[in-house]
Structures are given as structure tokens and as C-alpha cells.
Design brief:
single chain; alpha+beta; five-stranded mixed beta sheet; 3 helices; 21% strand; DUF922; signal; DUF922 domain-containing protein
Length: 177
């Protein structure tokens, strides 16, 4: 059986929309383990594993000395209940591939954070943030799909190593996405 992995991006407009389910924030100090993948394998699924991860944000505004200020938080999350794997066909390489999907979500969460900090928002901030968020999500989706295609869903070991170095570099801030 071919070892194929897939990813799901869960997009939320507010942290509160998804609080009812378990979520794991991205951390440089912890890596995914197979025990974190708690979802059931869907009937007819062809993938070896699926990592459900995405970006969430919240913000508020206030005025200081007559100027609008924005207090915001952007974070990447992993969703265990929506993530699953097939133990009989997965291995350490598959797990590394899945971890990189989560890491890529973090790269784009940082990109959104950076763009939020550099944007001069107007009174239409809610719409402006929504437009920024949707654009980042589209870029994230394209990036995730390219990652799967170029690595052949983890089967191309050399490409997988190349992507590992690229993502690690991005997380260390050595280049931009």
C-alpha cells in the first residue's frame, strides 16, 4: 500500500469558535507523536495520515493619545481529534512529514503576525484583518500542497530533507516565506 499523507487546514476567525475541541498550540519545544493523532480514519481514506492544523487569531482595538492601537494574537494550532493515521503503514518519516505540515502552519502564523504589526489599520479594521487573514490562508494552502507534491507525500526522501531544512530555516528566521 502506498504511504500517502494529507493535511487539513482548519481556519477559524476567532479562538473562541473552536475552544470546545482540544487544540495544541505550536511550540518549538515539543514535536508531534503518533499518540497525538486521535481522530478516526475516515472510510475510504487513501492517505496514510492527516494532520489537522491551522491558524487562529484574535484582536481588539483601543485608542491611545488619539491614535488607534491594535492588540492581537496569532497562533498555529494542531487539532488531535481531527488528525489521524494508519499505524500499519506509517513510520518515522511519515511522522516527520506530518510535523512539517504543523510547522508550516506556524511559519504562516508568524507571517500574519509580522504583517499585522506592519499594517496601519483604519476604522475598517475588522474587514482589513479578515482580508489579510484570508490571503495568508490561501498562501498557506498553496504552500502546503506544494510541499506534499514536491515530497511525494514523504516518499521522496531527498526532497523531504530539503523541505525540512527550508522550514527549519524559516522557523529560525533565517529567511522569509
Amino acid at each position: 500500500m502506498k504511504c500517502i499523507s494529507a493535511f487539513i487546514l482548519l481556519f477559524t476567525l476567532s479562538c473562541s469558535l473552536i475552544r470546545a475541541q482540544e487544540e495544541v498550540p505550536w511550540s518549538p519545544h515539543s514535536k508531534l507523536e503518533w499518540k497525538d493523532f486521535k481522530g478516526d480514519v475516515p472510510l475510504g481514506a487513501k492517505a496514510a495520515a492527516t494532520t489537522a492544523s491551522g491558524i487562529s487569531y484574535s484582536f481588539s482595538t483601543f485608542y491611545e493619545k488619539g491614535e488607534m492601537k491594535v492588540d492581537y494574537q496569532v497562533q498555529a494550532f494542531f487539532y488531535p481529534a481531527k488528525s489521524w493515521y494508519r499505524p500499519q503503514i506509517c513510520n518515522d518519516i511519515t511522522l516527520l512529514h506530518e510535523q512539517l505540515h504543523f510547522d508550516i502552519s506556524e511559519v504562516f502564523a508568524r507571517k500574519m503576525d509580522r504583517e499585522m504589526s506592519e499594517t496601519k489599520f483604519t476604522k475598517n479594521i475588522k474587514q482589513e484583518v479578515r482580508v489579510l487573514y484570508k490571503r495568508i490562508l490561501k498562501e498557506l494552502d498553496v504552500f502546503q500542497r506544494r510541499y506534499d507534491l514536491e515530497t511525494d507525500f514523504s516518499r521522496n526522501i531527498e526532497k523531504q530533507k530539503l523541505w525540512q531544512r527550508q522550514i527549519n530555516s524559516l522557523l529560525k528566521g533565517e529567511s522569509s516565506s
